């Protein structure tokens, strides 16, 4: 039976992890490779590396980092952050990334999804959507790391993106992100039940119950979190044991 | 011991190479028939689409080179599917080592089964030395929209929509549908078995 996936997310700036602190059992938690390898050993099913560097040197540093990650880490990983072209993706995949994630660039030029799926296959094209529920009760797409609002509804964009070639949706609820009060079960469930591709829920996971909820009620295929893993508020082995006891199929 | 990884237009060669490095079995990537024939072990990886991959192999007579190999060969993912007789993916005639057919997943509208299958699934009814030391129902990492049916060459089974071949074996040829290079410790053990025990 296909397992539900647990995915730690590492924010990267200038080749270093931004939030990785408070680990005694590795030498350098600022090193994305060391932190990623630790999560892999603990039973993470995949990793996401999100590059938030804003310099021109970025591509080279990132591709070198991706190469190092793929040398050392024995589970699949996705790389995202500022990807806008087939060439950007080619470099990352050649260096060993399994998937890439696109966000704002794909919204601004949806053909990008078609180009990437045509060139590399849908299985490596993850569409990240940042979404917020507004007073009218509708979920809208936000761009540029949540700073720019659009008039497009989340479900509409997700459906269009899948039709163009997105192979997976990484859905972050801005209402929930950082609250540790649980994932957005409604929009996650809507997308997961209407889309033919897997949905990764992100934003709001604060304890183990939240993960059980997003799999059972939110119908998510995978759940992503960052700081609760980095700050060891939730350990991956305990989380998986807990989910398994709740009858949720996970890889242990 | 010399291991080669076949280079072609549907390769996922970097990840396979690095995984071999991690288990201390460095390999070379090549499309040179002489080097492939001379190797002790041959790995035939693959991520991509069947018909364009077969066209590329045929144009270079690599399909014939592969068919005539007598040393252990391991096909991975699309590599395994190309070792079968036929794939429904763009109605492609494949290399024809395994008689099993490659078919498209069809969920008959049941959205509980996303296509392609992406993620960790269990393998069971494990046979041959390829699975030495691997527990029944171990998890491996799969990414695929087409699957090989079950048949006489099946040496591991996975359930997704229906039971299908997670691995195949005939003579000196082995194939795995999952990605051992991405399947954590289980995958590394399978690669180690192929390199050391087959």
Automatic annotation (TrEMBL), chain A:
Subcellular location: Cytoplasm
GO cellular component: cytoplasm
Domain of life where this protein originates: Bacteria
An individual GO BP term: L-histidine biosynthetic process
Pathway(s) per entry: Amino-acid biosynthesis; L-histidine biosynthesis; L-histidine from 5-phospho-alpha-D-ribose 1-diphosphate: step 5/9
InterPro entries linked to this entry: Aldolase_TIM, His_biosynth, HisF, IGPS_HisA/HisF, RibuloseP-bd_barrel
Enzyme Commission code: 4.3.2.10
HAMAP family: HisF
Family: Belongs to the HisA/HisF family.
Protein's name according to its UniProt entry: Imidazole glycerol phosphate synthase subunit HisF
Source species: Sediminibacterium ginsengisoli
Taxon lineage: Bacteria, Pseudomonadati, Bacteroidota, Chitinophagia, Chitinophagales
From TrEMBL, chain B:
Active site: 77 (nucleophile), 179, 181
Domain Glutamine amidotransferase, first and last residues per copy: 5-195
Pfam families cross-referenced by the UniProt entry: GATase
Pathway terms, separated by semicolons: Amino-acid biosynthesis; L-histidine biosynthesis; L-histidine from 5-phospho-alpha-D-ribose 1-diphosphate: step 5/9
GO MF, any single term: glutaminase activity
Catalysed transformations (reactions): 5-[(5-phospho-1-deoxy-D-ribulos-1-ylimino)methylamino]-1-(5-phospho-beta-D-ribosyl)imidazole-4-carboxamide + L-glutamine = D-erythro-1-(imidazol-4-yl)glycerol 3-phosphate + 5-amino-1-(5-phospho-beta-D-ribosyl)imidazole-4-carboxamide + L-glutamate + H(+); L-glutamine + H2O = L-glutamate + NH4(+)
Statement: the UniProt record of this protein carries the keyword Cytoplasm: yes
GO cellular component, one term: cytoplasm
PROSITE patterns from the UniProt entry: GATASE_TYPE_1
EC nos: 4.3.2.10, 3.5.1.2
Localisation: Cytoplasm
An individual GO BP term: L-histidine biosynthetic process
Stated role: IGPS catalyzes the conversion of PRFAR and glutamine to IGP, AICAR and glutamate. The HisH subunit catalyzes the hydrolysis of glutamine to glutamate and ammonia as part of the synthesis of IGP and AICAR. The resulting ammonia molecule is channeled to the active site of HisF.
HAMAP family according to UniProt: HisH
Protein name in the entry: Imidazole glycerol phosphate synthase subunit HisH
Gene: hisH
